[in-house]
Amino acid sequence: MPATHRTLSAQTTTDTAADLCRFAELVARAGLEPDLKRRYTSDPAAVFAEFGLLGAEPVYTVPSLLIEDLGRPDAAATTLLTGIPYAV
Question: What is the enclosing helix (H) or strand (E) of 61?
Fold first, then answer.
């Protein structure tokens, strides 16, 4: 099965709870304050900075997270479960 590997840095995992709280506040206030929603739509990086959030994709390092493609059957598992070879 094809798989996608992603990793998380230690800093990313330790700052996650605080970042999630700040992001939740941003989402709630944007829903209640039309001006904040307009500013976020026009310049999201500035609004993220205002709330103490990074406006960029984090850099993933270690440990590794494996995401498997579950859309196609695995030939070895199919043969093991059914006894019939699966032609891919």
Answer: none
Three-state SS for 64? strand
At residue 8, the 3 state secondary structure works out as coil
Extract the tokens encoding 74.
Answer: 């695995």
Q: Tell me how far apart the alpha carbons of residues 74 and 20 are, in angstroms, rounded to a whole number.
A: 36
Query: Distance between CA atoms of 12 and 60, rounded to whole angstroms?
Result: 8
pTM of the complete model beyond 0.85: no
Average pLDDT, stretch 18-34? 92
Domain boundaries, the chain: 3-82
The encoded tokens of residue 5 equal 């590997």
Contacts of 78 (CB under 8 A, 6+ apart): 84, 85, 86
Q: Cα–Cα distance between 45 and 23 in angstroms, integer?
A: 13
20 or 67, higher pLDDT = 20
